[in-house]
What we know:
6-stranded mixed β-sheet; 6 strands
Amino acid sequence: MKTIILVRHAKSDWPENTDDFDRPLAEKGIHDAEKMSHFLKEKNIEIEKFFSSPALRALSTCEIFNKEYHIEIETIQKLYNASDTNFENITVDLDDQLNTVAMFSHNNGISNFANSMSDDMFMFPTCGVAGFQIDCDSWSEFHGANKKLIFFYEPKKI
Length: 158
């Protein structure tokens, strides 16, 4: 079994004259990311590696989560404005030594990818987190594997 945890970046700000890629987290976003990462750690949700969009708001969210987890972070350009196909391509190429990974990215791609793995309909709120169990031994088997939602958390509901 493999597990993918999807995390939409926390609430961001959009200061004047700031490119989309460089948008920082808002104070609410920082607070939500701290709360959510602590919540996941308290629920004993193990994660072996973080993969993040390099955009400031996603990477900042990932770095806040890493204050709880202290694991390796790898940035992947394809997670910025990612399509569900980008997520799938990244997933099938993951190292089979990893059993549980988290990906930090953006809407609409992250919701579309979650929807492709579940009968539930997702529209991720900022800092929303969903975990999926993938019935496979190798990430390369992702496409044909059964996938099951194991949790979905929103900051305002924890």
